[in-house]
Amino acid sequence: MSHRRVLRVSLSLFLALLAAISVVACIGGGKRAGRDAGDDGGTRSASAPPLPTPPSLLPAADASTASASADAGALVSAERGKELYGKYCDFCHGETGKGYAADEAPALANDDFLTLASDEYLEGAILRGRPGTTMSAWSVSYGGPIGLNESKALVAFLRSWQRKPLALAPIDAGAPKGDAARGAPVYAAQCASCHGAQGSGGKYNALANPELLASASDGFLATTIERGRENTPMKGFGGKLTAPQIDDVVALLRSWQKPANHELELPPKPGELKNVVIAPKGPQPAFDAKADFVPVDTVKKEMDRGATMIILDARAPADYARMHVAGAISVPFYDAEKYAKQIPKDRFVLTYCACPHAASVKLRDAMRTLGYPRVAVLDEGILAWRDRGYPVRGGPTKP
Length: 399
Ligand code: HEC
Ligand code: HEC
Fold this sequence. Notes:
Oxidized Rhodanese, domain 1; two-stranded antiparallel sheet; globular
């Protein structure tokens, strides 16, 4: 089975990474100059020239990461990062990084975020994603298109949106200060409506996400809660909650932390596809040949009737590995051409993502450009498919 590649990231490597992250990403949880002290976020505009972070203003602990992004070889330049961002990221996070272009993707061009986030934090988010959300793991080691140079270039580009210097303080040493039980009612009253009762399944960021909690220090979380993120629905709670209450909520978030699962069976690469066509001998499905979108219920009905079709998962391969529509194959939206050689043109082709339309529409249009006559989007996307109890496959190789 040469096409089956099982990804293994050793625990020790992961722990070493965690240690490195906590050295550079930890910050003090106390009061600090926030929006009151002249946050210039409001005057920032997309057309303003980029203002690189002056290295002299960075704390010593972060000197090495500063040089990583300032050290602009052609491969890691902000210009290269901009190209990559345009190809893989802007349809969710927005061309100017304002966020919310699709699927509640958070703002990235936001000083309340960028000044707290170390390069390691940003690279970790890009490379390992936020499993269970539409933020893919983009790393080549998860079958994605982003290598180390590319992720550094992306970070350099994100930094070009930053107006104020990094504010990473020294590590907050010692045991966590808060109490999760005391934090629970505060969370339920103030946060659950947006972030979900247990930190997932809410309208916005999944706070119980294992990759987020592995990257974010207590200081990062406390300061984010205290200050909020200007011009986003995340308002600062500094005036509403006391510092000990914020520490209690942080302790609650920590209590949800589980080890991130790094073992996935990645899908076949271009040229290695198998079982592309569903029900090759079945009748053609009764979809409108000109349809742009076909509802999930219609697709399921035709599948049950034994109709033949091809279903493409438009997301990055790691998302497919975690969960996909039974019978679908992985064809990431950015690489359609490479996979198309093995995909016949005489069947109805459906594309889907979790967004539910961002990546799937990109792939549908790419397939049409490649000469496929009947291509439509599986309208509501994979989450609606799963929620109706329709068959899905995939998941970590070890629970
Ligand atoms: C009205 C909705 C809303 C409420 C209420 C809310 N948040 Fe948020 N929160 C958001 C949004 C939206 C973001 C992402 C903002 C962005 O960067 O674009 C966010 C981001 C965050 C982040 C950063 C997560 C990350 O991935 O970087 C943390 C931590 C957080 N919120 C904690 C809380 C806590 C704790 C509470 C309650 C005390 C709370 N939030 C209340 C909407 C909300
Ligand atoms: C399909 C939509 C989508 C695409 C494409 C996408 N993202 Fe995201 N991204 C999200 C969502 C949604 C989140 C928040 C996930 C959560 O925590 O719930 C996120 C989170 C992030 C975060 C963490 C933000 C924080 O507050 O901690 C970073 C950094 C990020 N994305 C960068 C990128 C980059 C760079 C790319 C391109 C390589 C990209 N994203 C592509 C949807 C997307």
